[in-house]
Structures are given as C-alpha cells and as structure tokens.
Design brief:
Shape of chain A: globular
Strand content of chain A: 15-25%
CATH architecture of the largest domain in chain A: 3-Layer(aba) Sandwich
Order of helices and strands of chain A: EEEHEEHEHHHHEHEHEEHHEEHEEHH
CATH superfamily of the largest domain in chain B: P-loop containing nucleotide triphosphate hydrolases
Low-confidence stretches of chain A: 1-5, 272-280, 325-345
Low-confidence stretches of chain B: 321-342
Helix content of chain B: 25-40%
Oligomer: heterodimer
CATH superfamily of the largest domain in chain A: P-loop containing nucleotide triphosphate hydrolases
Structural class of chain B: alpha/beta
Number of strands of chain B: 12
Number of helices of chain B: 11
CATH architecture of the largest domain in chain B: 3-Layer(aba) Sandwich
Distance between the termini of chain A: 49 Å
Largest interface: A-B, 56 and 52 residues
Strand order of the largest sheet of chain B: 6-7-8-3-9-10-12-11
Largest sheet of chain A: 8 strands, mixed
Radius of gyration of chain A: 22 Å
CATH topology of the largest domain in chain A: Rossmann fold
CATH topology of the largest domain in chain B: Rossmann fold
Number of strands of chain A: 14
Order of helices and strands of chain B: EEEHEEHEHHHHHEHEHEEHHEE
Mean pLDDT of chain B: 87
Helix content of chain A: 25-40%
Amino acid sequence: MARLTSQRLAQLEHVYKTFSTQRGEVRACDDVSLVVTKGQSLGVVGESGSGKSTLVRILLMLIPPTSGRVWVHGTDVTHLPERRLKPYRRQIQFVAQDPLSALVPNLTVAENIAEPLWIHRIGDKSSRRETALALMEKVGLTLALGNSFPSELSGGQQQRVAIARALALMPELIVLDEAVSSLDVSIQAQILNLLQTLKEDMELTYVFISHNLAVIRLMCEQTAVMYKGRIIEWGESETLFATPLHPYTRELIDAIPAFTAQGVTPLRAVGRKTFEASGSTVTGCPYHPRCPLASEVCRRDRPSLRPVGDRQVACHHADVAHVSCAVSRRRGHEKRLVEKGGNGG
Amino acid sequence: MSAVLRIDDLRVQFRSDQGLVHAVNGLNLELPAGGAIAIVGESGSGKSTAMTALMRLLPRTARVSGRIWFDGQDLLALSERQMRKLRGHQVSMVFQNPMAYLNPTKTIGQQLMEPLLYHHLATPRQARWRALEFLERVGIADAESRFKGYPFEFSGGMLQRVMIAMALMAGPKLLIADEPTTALDVTVQAEILALLKELQAEHGMGMILVTHDLAVAAQMADEIYVMYAGLVVEHLPAGSLMSAHAHPYLHGLLRSIPRIDGPREKLPFIAGNPVNPVGALPQGCLFASRCSQRRPECNQRPPTVRLDNNHEVVCWLPDIGVEGDKSGPFDVPTVGPAGTRL
C-alpha cells in the first residue's frame, strides 16, 4: 500500500447529501466543496443542523454522498467498495465528542489504543502493545492506566485515550468532531494543548468541528462557516474572525460571549424577527430571512461561493461588507450597509 | 440593600458505595434584592447540588446542614407542605434541559397555567390570559395556537422560552437558572440570555445563574461566585473578573480559555484533575495539589480574605499580580502527567 505523497490530503467536490425522512427530503450537504491541504488545519463551524456532522461522515467515508466526489490523497474514493476503502480509511482518523461511547468498554486502555493496529493487521501482539504504551506516554497518560477500563477514567483521560487511538495508525489527517466540547474548561485547555503539541510534533493536520469559535481559531489555520448545509464563508482563520464578510459569520461571532484582550464581549441579543421555515422552501439566499443586508437580489438568487478579497464568501453583498470592514470593524456599520446595499454586488 | 437570599455554611453530603461524597463543603452567599449573581464552577464543583438543596429537591438520602435564609425564613427548616407553597410561586427554577422537565402528555398551555392554578393565584380564565401574555412576552409568535401545542412540537430554544415563561408566571422573588443555555446554539443562547436579563430587570426579581461559562457569568451577573470542590474560592464583582481576580484557580481558568482575538499561541492550563469528593477531603487547601503557587501554609485550610467591597478570596496568598500578566504564576505549558488522580 503505497502512500501517495500529495499535499491535498482530502477533497470534497460538489458534494450533495439528502436524507429522506417522513416529512420529506432533508438536504444536509448542499454543494459542498473543500480541500484539506497538509499543514492547513480546517475548522468547520455552524449551528446544530447546519450539516457539519454529515460533512464529517462523508469525509470519513462512512456514508457515500448523494452526488459529488470525495478524494483522498489524489484518489477518487467515492465509489470504491468497502474492501478497497480500508487503506484510505487509515489515512483519516476520527476523535468523537463523547470518548466513553467511542471506546470499547470491555477492552483495556492499552487494548483500545492497539485495536486499530489489530484491525489493519499491523505488527504482532507484543509490538502492538508496545506501540500502545508509547502512544499513552505521548498523550500524557501514566502507563499504570494501561490495564484500566475506559469507564474507570475521568473524562479528560478518556479523551486522551481516544486521541491515542486515533494516532495509532499514524494518519496525516485527524477529524475531531466537538472533541473538547463536553470537557470542563481546565481539562479542555489540557486537551487543546496536547492537540497543539501533537500537531507540531507529528505534522498532523486537523479537521476540527466545533461550535466554539475561539477553539477553532486557536487550532486551525483555515475556517469554513456552514449554514443550512452550505459553506458560506471560507478563509484564513485569523482574518475571518477579525473581519467576517458574511453577515451570518458576523452574527455568530457577535453572539458568543467571549473573552478578548479588553474583557468580556457585552451581551448582545440578535434581533431575529422571523423564524424561518425549513430550508428547502426558502428561495434565494438561505440566510435572507435573518439577514440585515437582505435585498431583492437575495430573495431571488442563491449566492454561490466566490472569491472576495482573501477568501471565499457566498453573499451578494460581500463586496460592500469587505470595503466597509476595512473602514470600520464590526458593530454599528450594518445600518450603513443596508443603505448602500442596492449599489453593491 | 437587603438580601433576598442568604446561604450560611451550606453543606451537602451523600452516602455512596465508595464512601461519603462531599458535594458542598460550606457555601456562603448573599443575593441582594433585585440583583443577579452567578455561580461558576466546573462539573462536580457542587453548584447544582447547592441550588437543588435550596429548592429542597435533593433525595432524602442527602445530608444537608447550614441555613438558607429566604424572605425571613430558613428554607431548610420548612415542612414539605410549606416548601410546596414556595416553589413555583416565590422561588422558581429554569433547568438546562427543558424537555426533561416538561410533561410530554400535557399541552404547553396547561403547563403554563399550572403555577397559577396550583397556588390559587388566578381563575382558569385569568390564568389562560396571563399565559398567553407571557408566551408573547418571551418571544413566541402566534401564542394562541402554540398554547395548544405539545412540548415535542417546539425546538430547544422555544422550549427554554416556555420554561422561562412558566417560571415567571407566578411572579417569583427569586429565579434560579441552572445552565439555562448550555444545550442551545450560540445564536439562540444570546437571545435567551438577553431575554432573561430583560425579564429580571422588568420584574425586579433576584436571579442566580448557575453556569460553567465564565464569559456568560460576566455578561449576566453583578457578582460572581467561583466554586471549586464544593467551596466558594472567590467572590467578586463581575466587573473585576478580568482586572482584579486573585485566586490561583480562577486565574488559571481565565488564562486557559481560548480568546477570540490576540495571538494564537499555546494555551496555558491547570494541570491535574479536580478533587475527588468521595471519601475524606484533603486536610489543607482543596486546590493545593494543582496550584503552582503552593506554599507550606497550604497544608492548612486557607482563610477568607476580604480584598474589597463584595470581593473575598479563600487563599493564603490572595495578592498575586494578575494585570495583563505575561509572566503569570503558571509556567510555560507542557503536556503534564495528567494521569494521576487524587
């Protein structure tokens, strides 16, 4: 199994995913394209139901997309049979939100960590155990815990085991779905710190799913913002958080109570007047019922992702926002934008 | 200002197979009338247990001692019958998971009217009218038709609005909100918090917000109580949180929260795990084993040091400098040996 030396670790190309439910079709991914390149960890943010987890499941080759293509290391894996997916699956590993349900309860910590090696038939029993113990050291677990069971560990320790398990196959890409969300602040910081160290030491690239924007900003070079199954803004984390171009990104950033160098951001209610119907019935931009910049064109045409300045934005008024962001940052300029809205775009 | 609530030396213990669980170990706090305080702590710090003790909703196996003064009476000394008269009338609570606290077989309307009818505060007709009014007040459009809806027909954010409306129906003097927005999306969280704050001011009631999120606490409350291992380690005005906090635990917590601006650098963290509340507690300061500022004195219980008005800290060295520190008491972060549990 030759490992392809590609800088593009994984790529999604015009991926759609619809689920049929009793109430009709739900479009969880709606024309999602993204590239994960080596060393450019990607953060994906969005509220619940925005399609983050579906995106992850497609990327992990756990579910096939309805249409579109998935590439791993330059190979189209979209239609490969299960049997032939195995070598690609080992390149992308996964850390889930709840470590206790992700670990095998009747295997010890060391066995849990070694299990991926066993599945992929790597090494013999003793070498696998050796690898497991080395990994435990790497993630900051005392070796004495090797024979404990996952349920005997604290939440932070369990997450360390889950991380060690994901590292066992030496993947280049690790997908972390809300991996620190259920942990307490002090433990969360320990795990984030560990992930940062591992990222440098082992040249890992992360796809980090979270609703915590500050965590994404810390861990990822790139950020993609999802709304209703679509990526609506994608760019460098630092500039994206400093000058959000899509009004939804701005709403998200304004909504989180966050610590800045100045103190805590003041409480700011998002004046949502209407509660929109389900996604499929909205024509035009899916965000327009909530958007302060909505104009005629937003209600009519669905904006597609296009380059604006240093990033990709799916908004008809992103250019206006871009210009105005350069002049005044965030708050208070929405009003001006609405007035100018007509001649933008 | 007179206090609507005062808790003196509240202790809660549970018996378990592993030994005695020390959930709350001497909590003191005071809520000024019409004020808002926040209790912040990590899981297991005893914040929810203390509030459940206040509502007298703990299982009978819990050993509770101390005094909880509310409206001139000690809640812990009341009979169950007297307590029932208070709950949902004078004292109300909003929980983290509204779905678990609403009756799935009753309509929202029936449940909203319940506090008024139960306490004989209104006739059914008046109750209905007031329920509709409250539904609209908490931002539920089309209240008339939603009134007949069942909980499963509402989204999480909507249900939390219903819970808030229900808690306020009887005009309580004290509202306890236990992690009211933890299960919600950030945009919805901001709306719910703003609503709570508005209603609190409007009704002039006291509010206790229980949260694990320091930022939320600072946004919502006038004063913050930081709990660790069943004890308040620091009590300070919300405005001083960033500028004047003194306890090493709070300092470590604040530093370990990722920022939304500034440089992206390695996160400092507090090594180790929280104190295990099962069995005998450590002799000295409960935070000592994780504290980088540890001194010999820390083998004894630290004193409560008053630093300012409404600002006390329970520590032997409350004077560590914290302003814009780059060289704080926490060393360069390393991947610590966190496998050890106390």
